[in-house]
Amino acid sequence: MEIAGYIAAIFIGISLGLIGSGGSILTVPVLVYFFNTDAVTATSYSLFIVGLTSAVGSYSYFRKGMVSKKVVALFGIPSIISVILTRNFIVPAIPESLGTVAGIHLSRDLLLLILFAILMAGASYSMIKQKNILKPIAGEEDSLKISLVIMNGFLIGIITGLIGAGGGFLIIPALIMLLKVPMKAAVGNSLAIIAANSFIGFLSSHNHQQINWWLLLSVSTLAIAGIFIGIRLSKNIDGEKLKPAFGWFILVMAIFIILKETIGHSV
After folding, report:
1. pTM value?
2. Fewest beta carbons within 10 Å, which of 126, 136, 160, 172?
3. What is the number of other CB atoms lying within 10 angstroms of the CB of residue 69?
4. Which residues of the chain have pLDDT under 50?
5. What pLDDT is attached to residue 255?
6. What residues make up the domain containing 119?
7. Can you name the residues that pair with 107 across neighbouring β-strands?
8. Residues near 140 by Cβ (< 8 Å), separated by ≥ 6?
């Protein structure tokens, strides 16, 4: 199973390099089902892996001047604050056992996996419905748009801290519609925001916990290798045309997680 997990890590990177999003959302399922990591630890480990791969992925955008410090700060600061609060207060406050719901024993791990599956379904929808071209929102005051960006940033931080996902499929539309950031620059800024959020979330999660650095570094290295493979493939393959198919794959994975975890935890 671990060999399959390492292969999946490469696939995560390829998807990021080829289509620019979505791959990192598979990190938690890979850690849980291929490396037998519990859900809470998997969300934390995912922060490191997603953070490192996003940082590498954003490097070319930095070199091209397509990452704005102002945009990253405006979206990133409230997001970072909520990540720290979530990892230090909300996640530790969730009880190990939450009782029985509809004949299913609801544990903390199960709750996080179900929430993650719901997020995967949301991400899949945005990929499948990619034909809807995003356009900046006109006719609103700048102060209102900035307020909405801050609110979005805070929400993304909660999502990132709670279930270890970057939330790029939510960040990019906000940057385009609210801040009028061009699509390519939105991807670069999104990767920078995700990298900052994820690293800080990871660092605030391990005060007393032993870390499996071999697992983290090996999966991260393979994912980064996959990014470069994906970037090279993107020169000959239109990644945008692959997004709907990858979206359906993520949706199937979300349904699989929900069915496996709910049936397996039935009382």
Report:
1. 0.84
2. 136
3. 10
4. none
5. 92
6. 2-264
7. 97
8. none
Q: Count Cβ neighbours within 10 Å for each residue of 146-164 and write b for 16 or more, e otherwise.
A: eebbeebbbbbbbbbbbbb
Tell me how far CA of residue 222 lies from CA of 13, 49, 172, 176, 225, in angstroms.
Answer: 7, 10, 25, 31, 5
Q: Please count the structural domains in the chain.
A: 1
Token pair of 235 as six digits: 């020169």
Quick one: DSSP state of residue 134? -
The string over 214-224, giving b where at least 16 C-beta atoms fall within 10 Å of a residue's C-beta and e elsewhere, is ebbebbbbbbb
Half-sphere exposure of 174 (CA within 13 A, CB side): 26
Tens digits of per-residue pLDDT, 3-35?
999 999 998 888 777 765 666 688 889 999 999
What is the C-alpha to C-alpha distance for residues 204 and 224, in angstroms, rounded to an integer? Answer: 23
d(CA 55, CA 67) in angstroms, rounded, equals 12
- Please state, in angstroms and rounded to a whole number, the distance separating the CA atoms of residues 255 and 71: 35
